[in-house]
Amino acid sequence: MRTKFASLLFLTLAVYPVLAQQETADTVIVPLAESSKIIFTVGNPEDLETLRHYNFQGLFEDILDRLEETAKPSQDSSSYNQEEADAGEIKDSDQQEDDAHIDHDGGKWVSSRKGKVGETWQSYNIDLGTNNYLLDDQFPTGTALYAVRPWGSWYVAGNSVQRTKLGRNFFVEWGLGVSWYTFKFQEDNTVLIKDESGVHFSTDTRNVDYIKSKLSATFINASLVPVLDFGGHSRKPRVWDGHGGGFRFGIGPYVGYRIASKTKLVYEEDGEREKEKDRDNFYLNNLRYGFRVQIGVRSTDLFINYDMNDLFATDKGPKLNAVSFGLIL
């Protein structure tokens, strides 16, 4: 049957250009066996040349295997009654959900399942956004030397994320990653001075042309984010997919450990570009922890990270809580 199935489809592709000249319809129906049929729709006739190169035999092998698993006939029809039929129709979708559909993704056919409870899928995500911080629940103003420019204060993170299904639309995403904070100060001649009493923000007064000044820190992070995904799919859609599922929302904790930090001052003197780097802890807290919010619709996901603890150690710097937001790629 499978060979006949694939052969009929190839025959359909071969005769479709002739049919298209005679009819305006772009759908071909091919009857199979006694009660089955294929409905093949082509939106653009130019796609036919591309479709000739697909491995339809392998595609239908996968489809038929899934149909055999989900449509096995009853072994004893005499014992089949309405009560069993109702029970069969009202299966626990959380345990039995194994729906499959075939998507066209980047010129190849891929199968994506909604999956079963307990199954886990792994992916690599990149967070790309901007940093700032809050002082008494407000962003610092330009009069404060530690005030930053959102453009140039980048947040970049690479994460390995495991997505485990706990219910029909309920998942938990847990992962490990590395993040890079950058805080670009509004005043290009801002410098950090560290002494025994703490870290102090000051102004460099040399007679040079200042270009930029920034503080950066690198953290290793772990996160645990419960997610409600009303699309219910095992794999979160990506921005480059061009398509996606329904609305998604998640919120959960994260923790990070600082592994590096530095300041960088860039200026121009006598026509030469100079860079001054200072690697130090600057009394930054080694540990950061907070909550992460994820919001997604279709193939776009946004994140917000808010550090519950201060950026600097207690009584060693201004009481600033870092906040980052941006796009999940």
Q: Which structural class is indicated by helix and strand composition?
A: alpha+beta
Share in β-strands: over 45%
Distance between the termini: 43 Å
- Domain count: the total is 2
Question: How would you describe the overall organization of this protein?
Answer:
By secondary structure, the chain is α+β, with helices and mostly antiparallel strands. It has 2 domains: 1-70, no CATH class; 120-328. The protein contains 5 helices and 15 strands. It has an 8-stranded antiparallel barrel with strand order 5-6-7-10-11-13-14-15. A two-stranded antiparallel ribbon has the order 1-2. Strands 3-4 form a two-stranded antiparallel ribbon. Helix 1 (2-22) crosses helix 3. The longest helix is centred in the N-terminal third of the chain and has 21 residues, at 2-22. The radius of gyration is 29 Å and the shape is elongated.
